[in-house]
Design the sequence.
């Protein structure tokens, strides 16, 4: 009987580990992925009613959607710092995470509508950029991309 329980526990172990690494909903439109070390906000904006073209409407909609996503991240960051202190220990602690600059968030994905509307996913790493380089998570290339241009400045 003991071996059956042990076998069942070992069989459930990968399932429990996967469930622990799932992103958590922090606020409306914001999830925290502690395994990946980031907060992700989703925001959208409809197109202007009378733009000259859908491309022009997309520019404004993208700016507004990013602004909305940044606002969501600011609010969610205070909730994460207050409610998830134990999980933030691996990112330098709650005090360090509270000092993160939301404007440093990067766009994960953008969906463009046919009329110019935009849905934007904005991701904020829980470790500051300078700290990521120290930890080896992301290393910037020492040689810039040569590109495909002729090499002459215009």
Sequence:
């Amino acid at each position: 009987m003991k071996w059956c329980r042990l076998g069942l526990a070992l069989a459930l172990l990968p399932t429990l580990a996967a469930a622990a690494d799932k992103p958590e909903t922090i606020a409306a439109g914001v999830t925290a992925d502690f395994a990946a070390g980031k907060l992700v906000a989703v925001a959208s904006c409809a197109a202007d009613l009378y733009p000259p073209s859908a491309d022009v409407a997309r520019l404004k909609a993208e700016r507004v959607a990013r602004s909305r996503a940044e606002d969501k991240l600011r609010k969610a960051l205070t909730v994460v710092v207050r409610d998830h202190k134990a999980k933030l220990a691996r990112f330098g602690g709650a005090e360090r995470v509270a000092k993160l600059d939301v404007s440093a968030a990067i766009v994960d994905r953008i969906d463009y509508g046919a009329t110019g509307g935009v849905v934007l996913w904005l991701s904020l790493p829980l470790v500051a950029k300078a700290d990521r380089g120290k930890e080896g998570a992301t290393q910037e290339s020492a040689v810039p991309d040569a590109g495909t241009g002729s090499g002459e400045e215009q």
Summary: Residues 135-154 have pLDDT under 50 and may be disordered. The longest strand covers residues 38-45. Helices lie at 2-20, 54-83, 94-98, 129-135.
